[in-house]
Write a structure and sequence with these properties.
- It is a single chain.
- The protein contains no helices and 27 strands.
- It has strands at about 5-10, 25-35, 40-50, 60-65, 80, 95-105, 110-120, 125, 130-135, 140-145, 145-150, 165-175, 180-190, 195-200, 205, 210-215, 220-225, 240, 250-255, 265-275, 275-280, 285, 300, 310, 320, 345-350, 360-370.
- The strands form eight sheets. The chain has a five-stranded mixed beta sheet with strand order 22-27-26-24-25, with no helix packed on it.
């Protein structure tokens, strides 16, 4: 109080001494006494407002790049630190940050609350794509996390055969529960189509040659395996003579490779029929000049065993006999040293067809000239 010598307050208040009043409105009366003993009174009304109690909400832990929303109830003077707006999402960097919300009443009373937001780092997930041929398997691997989930039902590290090109997305989850994604492209090349026709599939051991009509699609290189032990061919449409002295069936394989390295095979079989032939010269000249000295029938398709060559003179005498297809008549008489006379001689050949019990007999004439 002021203007007197002594002051007396009710409600236990001491003049000039601070005190704390509870929330509400209280009236305090002061009595002042001057030097003459005169006194007077006055009153003061003290209003104590309640402090606001904003609730910042529970602490939060989120993953990197996850929007955070802070929402506290309060009056129109509600405000957050760090530039945060109540109810508006924002992105916080990795780490832990404390946010304070303040609320102020109309009479200027202020209350606050705090909340901590922890942002965990996401893993960095990577994966590699692939380039394959149709029908091949591919294995996709994710890296940078501890668990992986692929789109399309693909299992991480498990081989599968995609039917067409496509994008595959992997989601990796780190040890802290945060995740990251990566996408890869698997390019599936179509295989070429290998095919061919045999131009003449009715061939025999006498002339085992045929050509091929290549009807393949999508190839860039071609490899022919004729199945007879001969060298492969890389021609587009080769002609081949089979290495066959006996009738047999051969597997012909055409391997076609596309520009992307994809491969297809096509197989056909050819049957080489056993055939036989005999060529017998009609003259020879055993005159010692080294030319045409031997009379020797040439056989094809006959067994070497069971072969016989007879040569007779005009009187029917046997002048030569051989049981070896490679030994012919040199013009001597019955293996003796002297030469027979010029003239026409009869011959007979007996031989067995290869891989058969059939025996053939051929007769004819040959002229011996000197």
């Amino acid at each position: 109080g002021s203007g007197a010598l002594n002051y007396s307050w009710d409600n236990g208040v001491t003049d000039g001494v601070a005190f704390v009043q509870g929330v509400g409105v209280s009236t305090y009366t002061v009595t002042g006494i001057d030097a003459n003993g005169c006194q007077n009174t006055d009153q003061v009304i003290v209003t104590v407002g309640a402090l606001p109690t904003p609730n910042a909400g529970p602490d939060q832990t989120v993953c990197e790049n996850t929007a955070v929303i802070l929402n506290s109830q309060g009056g129109p003077q509600l405000a957050w630190t760090n530039g945060v707006q109540n109810g508006v999402p924002f992105i916080q960097g990795i780490g832990t940050t404390t946010y304070v919300v303040y609320d102020t009443t109309a009479i200027g009373c202020t209350g606050s609350d705090t909340v901590q937001i922890t942002v965990l780092p996401n893993p960095v997930v990577t994966a590699n794509g692939a380039e394959i041929c149709f029908g091949e398997e591919v294995t996709l691997f994710g890296q940078g996390a501890v668990m992986y989930a692929w789109s399309g039902g693909i299992q991480n590290g498990m081989a599968f055969s995609p039917q067409q090109s496509g994008i595959y997305v992997v989601t990796g989850i780190g040890a802290n529960g945060c995740s990251d994604q990566d996408s890869v492209f698997v390019l599936v090349h179509q295989n070429p189509l290998a095919a061919f026709d045999i131009l003449n599939d009715d061939i025999s051991t006498i002339e085992p040659i045929t050509g091929f009509n290549n009807t393949s699609i999508g190839g860039s290189t071609y490899v022919w395996n004729f199945g007879d032990g001969t060298a492969n061919s890389s021609e587009f449409e080769p002609t081949h003579e089979f290495a066959s002295e006996e009738g047999s069936m051969y597997q012909i394989t055409l391997t076609v490779t596309s520009p992307h390295g994809c491969v297809d095979e096509f197989i056909r079989y050819i049957n080489i029929k056993q055939d036989y032939n005999i060529f017998v010269p009609n003259a020879f000249t055993p005159d010692g000049n080294g030319k045409n000295e031997i009379f020797l029938p040439i056989l094809d398709g006959f067994e070497e065993e069971g072969y016989t060559l007879y040569v007779f003179n005009r009187w029917g005498q046997l002048v030569f006999e051989s049981h070896d297809q490679y030994v012919g008549w040199d013009g001597t008489f019955a293996g003796q040293d002297f030469q027979t006379q010029d003239g026409v001689y009869s011959w007979k050949v007996i031989a067995r067809v290869k891989n058969s019990s059939e025996r053939k007999q051929y007769v004819g004439h040959v002229s011996l000239l000197k």
